[in-house]
Structure formats: structure tokens, C-alpha cells
């Protein structure tokens, strides 16, 4: 089991880099699992490369982010991330994303997110 201090340290590095859209990748495990980017396809995106691609696309929609709340217990954490979104149609929205993390072997091993998918569907052209 991972300790809370290591989990917090990994998340601090991740979110500092994530907010700048660079420098967050080193704390991600090679076999990372990401769940929640597409609620119609509940299977996780598997692997670090797959997650980097998800974030490459997602990064086009947010202009700023900050951690509103972080609760860490051992190798697990809950984070409320607050994002400033600008969609391709020009809509500007601020919203929260619930992010549930798991740490294994000294790296961020998985992330499950929960957010308002309807707002994304309405503002991103297909």
C-alpha cells in the first residue's frame, strides 16, 4: 500500500504540470488506466500512451485549471478539479470534474473521472 505523502507528492507534480499542459507525464504509470472520458464506452483507456492522447485532445478545451479539493488516504485520492473551458463554438464555461486516483508502485496507476457530459456534447461539433 502506498502512503499518503507519496500520493500527495505525485498529485502535486501531476496537477502543477497539467495546469501548464506540460510536465505531468513522468508520474503516470506505463500501464495506466483511465475511465470516464467517454461515458458511452465504459472500458478504460489502457496504457500511458492512450492517456497522453486523451489529454492531448482534452487540453484543447480548457484554458485554466486548479485543484479545489484534495483528499488523500494512502494510495487513493479524490480531487475536485475546477476547469475553465472554451469550446470550439465559442462557449466559455467553468466546471468541476470529480477525479478519483489510485497509486501503485510509486506512480499514478489509474484515474476515474465524473463530469457533465451533456455540456460537452452540446458544445463540441461532431
From TrEMBL:
InterPro entries: NTF2-like_dom_sf, SnoaL-like. Residues 22-110 form the SnoaL-like domain. This is Nuclear transport factor 2 family protein. The lineage of its organism: Bacteria, Pseudomonadati, Bacteroidota, Chitinophagia, Chitinophagales.
Amino acid at each position: 500500500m502506498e502512503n499518503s505523502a507519496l500520493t500527495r507528492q505525485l498529485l502535486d507534480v501531476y496537477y502543477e504540470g497539467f495546469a501548464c499542459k506540460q510536465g505531468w507525464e513522468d508520474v503516470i504509470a506505463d500501464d495506466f488506466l483511465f475511465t470516464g472520458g467517454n461515458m458511452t464506452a465504459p472500458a478504460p483507456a489502457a496504457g500511458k500512451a492512450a492517456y497522453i492522447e486523451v489529454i492531448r485532445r482534452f487540453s484543447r478545451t480548457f484554458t485554466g485549471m486548479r485543484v479545489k479539493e484534495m483528499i488523500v488516504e494512502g494510495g487513493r485520492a479524490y480531487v475536485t478539479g475546477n476547469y475553465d473551458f472554451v469550446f470550439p463554438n465559442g462557449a466559455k464555461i467553468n466546471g468541476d470534474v470529480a477525479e478519483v486516483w489510485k497509486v501503485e508502485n510509486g506512480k499514478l496507476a489509474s484515474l476515474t473521472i465524473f463530469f457533465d457530459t451533456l455540456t460537452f456534447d452540446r458544445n463540441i461539433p461532431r
